[in-house]
Specification:
Layout lengths: L2 E4 L9 H16 L3 E6 L9 H14 L5 E5 L4 H13 L3 E4 L3 H13 L12 H7 L10 E4 L6 E6 L3 E6 L7 E3 L12 H11 L4 E5 L6 H10 L6 E5 L2 E3 L14 H6 L4 H9 L13 H7 L10 E3 L1 H14 L2 H14 L21 H8 L6 H7 L1 H4 L6 H7 L5 H10 L7 H14 L4 H13 L7 H8 L1 H7 L3
Length: 477
């Protein structure tokens, strides 16, 4: 059974780079009918916060990344890590090291002076104590170090980057517990906790950002020391801005919560995130279900992906167009409310003009092809709820002696015509032929009168949405 995990540190809001990693881990688990685990890595007490952990849960729920197990919190698992460390100390897989910070610095300086890479020399390994003639200093709390293999290399087939090999001579004996008196185990360190967790949580595939590549050989050695075959590792490339620079605010919103607030659909965000480093043929627009169906690790690109805010918005517009209309209405409703517009039938007349306001379904129908986000759709919908201010000069551009009579005739028809799109469309056509006008000569002045702008949806759709009373009030010549 495939089991993947997302292991964020709760030190801020989820941004596009790390939620994309979560998406890939989730999609992989879902594709294989496996399980997806959430682990909150909250051991950095200064930077971690409950608010951030709650935000992570909220953002994941919004995106639809459902979890099968967790959230597990590392701070609640300290006893378990300490138990494993005590065990490793007892059988020599780990040992106490009493080297002081000053001694370590001296060692580093000496190594650098010789042109060597600074690394701990293993001097407190039990068998070396005699060799170096070391005496356990009084009053010093030792750290615990993992006994890394001396010879050979760590090799793994990274699911994204391909084969990676790191010589053990590059890796020194990692500190796995911070200083504590002998007999107690100090605070376990990050690389160690991750391994214990991935073992206990039976993770089969570790999909994470490529900032962790250099932790992986160390972690693999700890896995092996614990008698467990390491999982598959796949390190996903960084997300950059579209100019190739590190992704920042300059390139557009980076926090997932900002996308929710701006009226992005979670399915569009999933689509956009997936396309940052993953592809399925030439498919640009796909649903979360399709992503799950198609997702594989082989199609992840090892080179950095570039985030393009405009493309995200375009994708969102495409997903808005594809949403079933009642679903669109439901999702648009909060944005209309936020903009201060009454929408439901029960609030009809709440505009103060006595005329019923269009429903969110009608507004969605009218604007779904035109707005890239729900927030922009709600902003665009202003004329559905508030009488537009008409710019006389703009109206004069479109209404003059050639078409005034036609527009007046249209106004007259409104009181009695059957209020259906087909009847309204036929009436507008009739106005054209009757007065011998071209389409824009009829439509443009009506658009300006109905919405205050010449850039507006088709007039039959506008009339239908605004309703008879409002249309009659606005079309006056
Ligand atoms: N907590 C780590 C991070 O947020 C993730 C570690 C991992 O996935 O192994 O970068």
């Amino acid at each position: 059974m495939v089991r993947t995990r997302f292991a964020p540190s709760p030190t801020g809001t989820l941004h596009l780079g790390n939620i994309r990693t979560a998406l890939f881990a989730w999609a992989y688990a879902r594709h294989h009918k496996g399980q997806f685990v959430l682990r909150i890595e909250d051991t950095d007490l200064e930077r971690s916060s409950d608010a951030s952990a709650e935000g992570i849960l909220r953002d994941m729920a919004w995106l639809g990344l459902d979890i099968d197990e967790g959230p597990f919190f590392q701070m609640q698992r300290m006893d378990r890590y300490r138990e494993v460390i005590a065990h490793m100390l007892s059988d020599g897989r780990a040992y106490h090291c009493y080297m002081s910070v000053e001694e370590l610095d001296q060692l580093r300086d000496a190594q650098k002076a010789k042109g060597e890479k600074p690394r701990y020399d293993g001097r407190w390994r039990p068998e070396h104590i005699a060799k170096f003639g070391l005496k356990i200093p009084a009053g010093v709390d030792p750290v615990v170090r993992f006994r890394n293999p001396d010879a050979g290399a760590v090799t793994w087939q990274d699911a994204v980057k391909g084969k990676i090999e790191i010589a053990n001579s590059e890796l020194d004996d990692l500190v796995i517990a911070r200083p504590a008196p002998v007999g107690q185990v100090g605070v376990p360190t990050y690389n160690f906790c991750v391994v214990v967790d991935d073992i206990d949580m039976q993770i089969t595939h570790v999909i994470r950002g490529d900032g962790h590549v250099m932790n992986t050989p160390r972690q693999i050695n700890i896995f092996r020391a614990m008698g467990v075959e390491p999982p598959v590792f796949g390190h996903t490339p960084t997300v950059l801005g579209n100019d190739g620079e590190k992704l920042s605010k300059r390139h557009g919103a980076t926090g997932l919560n900002e996308y929710a607030a701006a009226g992005f659909l979670p399915e569009a965000v999933i689509n956009g995130l997936a396309r940052l480093g993953w592809s399925h043929g030439n498919d640009e627009i796909f649903s979360p279900q399709q992503l799950v169906e198609w997702f594989n690790l082989e199609s992840l690109t090892p080179s950095p992906a570039r985030f393009d805010a405009e493309k995200f918005e375009w994708l969102n517009g495409e997903h808005i167009k594809r949403l079933p209309i009642d679903e669109l209405a439901k999702r648009l409703e909060p944005f209309l409310k936020e903009a201060g517009y009454p929408t439901s039938g029960s609030e009809a007349g709440a505009r103060g003009d006595g005329f019923p306001a269009p429903t969110s379904l009608a507004v969605g129908e009218l604007l779904r092809e035109r707005a890239p986000t729900l927030k922009k759709m709600a902003q665009m919908a202003r004329y559905c709820f508030v009488a537009p201010e008409i710019d006389d000069a703009l109206l004069a551009q479109h209404l003059n002696e050639t078409n005034r009579a036609a527009i007046a005739w249209v106004g007259e028809q409104l009181s009695t015509i059957e209020w259906s799109k087909a009847a309204l469309a036929a009436m507008l056509k009739e106005a054209q032929s009757k007065f011998n006008l071209k389409t824009p000569q009829v439509m443009m002045p009506l658009r300006v009168m109905l919405t205050g702008s010449a850039q507006a949806p088709a007039v039959d759709a506008l009339l239908l949405t605004l309703g008879r009373a409002t249309a009659m009030a606005r079309i006056r010549v």
